[in-house]
Amino acid sequence: MRTPAGKECRYYFEDYYRGRQKQECRLLTQNPNSGRWKPSLCRSCPIPDIQRQNACPNLVLEARVQTSMLGMRQEVKVFAVCTRKMVEVTNPAIGCGECHLAQPVEKILKQG
Ligand code: SF4
User: Fold this and answer.
1) DSSP structure class, residue 71
2) What whole-number distance in Å separates Cα of residue 4 and Cα of residue 16?
3) pTM of model > 0.90
4) CB of 31 within 8 A of CB of 63?
5) CB-based contacts of 57: which residues, under 8 Å, 6+ apart?
6) Could you point out which of 71, 72, 81, 98 has its C-alpha 20 to 30 Å from the C-alpha of 105?
7) DSSP E strands: which ranges in the chain?
8) What would the pLDDT profile of 16-45 be if each residue is shown by its tens digit?
9) Most informative mutation of 10, 31, 41, 60 for ligand 1 (most atoms within 8 A of CB)
């Protein structure tokens, strides 16, 4: 679904059917310690770009809202894990690189 910031995100949900006015981030609501989501967080959130750049099925994303030290600015911080290698992925847009070594190049290209 397209976020208020105009990017596709599989975690964004909205419902305006029959007078409802519901918007939510289903990634942040999964994490009870994430902090409160608001639509403006989608503007600087890195998740839509990560989803577009890396479609690895073994990559699991977690996120939380981080407030700056002065409390003036909030942004979405991402934590990524590879469930195949069971390691933290420091650059989720690229991934841990392990699956790419295990798959033949033709299969990766076919996945798109
Ligand atoms: S905050 Fe990020 S993950 Fe959540 S709906 Fe917006 S773009 Fe998607």
Assistant:
1) S
2) 13
3) no
4) yes
5) none
6) 81
7) 12-15, 22-25, 59-67, 74-82, 87-89
8) 999 999 999 999 999 888 889 999 999 999
9) 41
